[in-house]
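Researcher: Quick test of sequence recovery. Tokens follow.
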């Protein structure tokens, strides 16, 4: 069996070999190739992208594809919002209001038995209503016999601001106590027991003023009523009522207005009773344009009561701005009747005699002019000259019967006055400020030898410096030139007890009242927002000067105290 399989296999191989040999072509022999190729992996051809394109694109085919949509149109108005929109301010958080100390109490003591007490109270922060009260006491004793003086004041006030007008009012009481301590150094025994004097002053006042409006044709108005009662320790008393009204109509750049005032009063003493009443009417027209302000009118004055007369004076003022905020030129021409009162006399000189002569003075013609303005931040100035012609100017003279009491005489005729006034204010910073004032006056009396107790030169100045926001230093100085006083050598009175209109030079003499320099300094130290302390020294040079003959003022004195503020 095995031999057959071997035979068949051998035959099959021989047949296949013969077939292969018959299929091959016989070729001529080729030349031998010396290059050897080594095949690592099968070859796979890679074609470039451009070769893959079978044809170029057709650039002329611009047909676009349009998709089909299903939609509907809505009829709606086009809103234009191209205008500039108003910016809305972002609301800030409420600022914390400053804590206001609207009330305080103050007290102090010092040399010469100085005693100070002061208090002020207010209802606080309210834009439409304000009300409060004020009290002050000050007393001092000098080194001379009964050189004692004290002052008290109590005031209550209120103000209501409405939509159309502002109402305000106040009640005031003042008391002034003193002694007639005047001493003649040549005869020091003439006044061994000085008399006491006390003035009591009661006052009530009410006012209404319309609120300002920017309307070019607005009507403005104001009215005020003031009434007071004054009496002293003796028999003198004075009652007076003053009523003032004001109307103004604006018409573009013009103002038409009328100011009216009436003063009705009576002064009584043991042997005298005088009513010197006035009625004033002042119609005017005012022109106000850029840099120019002119007011022209008349002042009609009617005297009635114990004295009756009618007078008309000019009332013209002008103000021109040459350099805004830096230089203004102003001028005024006017005239008036001045109502003399016991109140005005006692405020200037409290050492008055009894049965004081009361009559009005006439300022026939007053001309003034000057310049004012600022020279930059913190600097201001004003300079003014004036010329006046005054009829029946009142003057103080020592009484013949009581040398330490003063009578009032009148320089009958036309007294002429020339004066120069200057003011300056310098504020270097919030911490440093200085102010000064100068007055120079030249009197030419009508019938008297001099204008008594009227110094020709007066200078005052104030200085304040704040150090470290807690300590404030201040200083002030007052300089006054010599003045003159009249002394009677014999009784000058007429048989009816009045002074003659023309002085008798044989019965009188003129003495000199020496001028003075009064320097004072002070300091305030703020411990906190509520508590502070203060100190003040007066008449540091210890000058023994007199404002009125025989009445020497206090010498050097110092006092201090504490102040407490609260709501």
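Model:
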């Amino acid at each position: 069996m095995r031999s057959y399989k071997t035979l068949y296999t051998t035959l099959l191989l021989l047949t296949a070999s013969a077939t292969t040999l018959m299929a091959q072509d016989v070729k001529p022999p080729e030349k031998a190739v010396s290059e050897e190729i080594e095949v690592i992996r099968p070859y796979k051809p890679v074609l470039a992208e451009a070769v893959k394109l079978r044809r170029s694109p057709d650039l002329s085919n611009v047909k676009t594809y349009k998709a089909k949509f299903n939609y509907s149109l809505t009829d709606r108005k086009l809103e234009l919002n191209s205008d500039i929109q108003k910016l809305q301010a972002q609301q800030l958080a409420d600022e914390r209001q400053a804590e206001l100390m609207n009330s305080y109490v103050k007290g102090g003591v010092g040399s010469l038995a100085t005693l100070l007490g002061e208090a002020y109270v207010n209802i606080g922060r309210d834009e439409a209503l304000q009300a409060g009260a004020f009290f002050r006491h000050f007393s001092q004793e000098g080194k001379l016999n009964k050189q004692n003086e004290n002052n008290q004041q109590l005031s209550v006030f209120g103000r209501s601001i409405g939509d159309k007008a502002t109402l305000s009012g106040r009640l005031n009481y003042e008391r002034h106590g003193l002694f007639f301590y005047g001493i003649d150094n040549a005869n020091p025994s003439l006044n061994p027991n000085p008399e006491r004097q006390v003035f009591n002053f009661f006052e009530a006042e009410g006012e209404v003023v319309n609120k300002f409006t920017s309307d070019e044709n607005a009507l403005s108005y104001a009215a005020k009523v003031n009434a007071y009662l004054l009496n002293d320790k003796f028999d003198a008393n004075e009652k007076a009522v003053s009523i003032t009204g004001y109307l103004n109509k604006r018409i573009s750049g013009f103002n038409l207005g009328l100011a009216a005032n009436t003063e009705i009063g009576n002064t009584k003493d043991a042997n005298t009773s005088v009513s010197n009443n006035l009625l004033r009417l002042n119609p005017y027209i005012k022109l106000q344009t850029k840099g120019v302000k002119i007011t022209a009118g008349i002042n009609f004055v009617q005297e009635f009561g114990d004295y009756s007369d009618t007078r008309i004076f000019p009332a013209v003022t002008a103000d021109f701005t040459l350099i805004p905020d830096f230089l203004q030129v102003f001028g005024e021409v006017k005239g008036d009747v001045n109502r003399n009162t016991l109140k005005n006399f006692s405020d200037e000189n409290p050492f008055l005699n009894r049965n004081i002569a009361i009559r009005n003075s006439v300022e026939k013609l007053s001309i003034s002019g000057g310049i004012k303005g600022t020279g930059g931040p913190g600097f201001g100035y004003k300079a003014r000259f004036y010329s006046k012609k005054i009829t029946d100017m009142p003057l103080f003279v020592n009484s013949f019967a009581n040398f330490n009491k003063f009578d009032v005489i009148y320089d009958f005729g036309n007294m002429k006055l020339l004066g120069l006034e200057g003011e300056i204010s310098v504020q270097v910073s919030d911490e440093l400020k200085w102010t000064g004032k100068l007055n120079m006056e030249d009197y030419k009396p009508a019938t008297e030898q001099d204008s008594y107790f009227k110094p020709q030169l007066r200078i005052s100045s104030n200085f304040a410096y704040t150090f470290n926001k807690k300590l404030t230093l201040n200083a002030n100085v007052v300089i006054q030139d010599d003045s003159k006083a009249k002394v009677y050598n014999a009784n000058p009175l007429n048989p009816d007890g009045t002074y003659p209109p023309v002085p008798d030079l044989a019965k009188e003499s003129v003495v000199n009242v020496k001028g003075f320099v009064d320097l004072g300094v002070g300091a305030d130290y703020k411990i906190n927002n509520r508590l502070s302390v203060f100190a003040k020294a007066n008449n540091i040079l210890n000058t023994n000067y007199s404002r009125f003959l025989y009445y020497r003022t206090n010498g050097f004195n110092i006092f201090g105290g504490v102040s407490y503020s609260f709501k």
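DSSP finds three helices and 27 strands in the chain.
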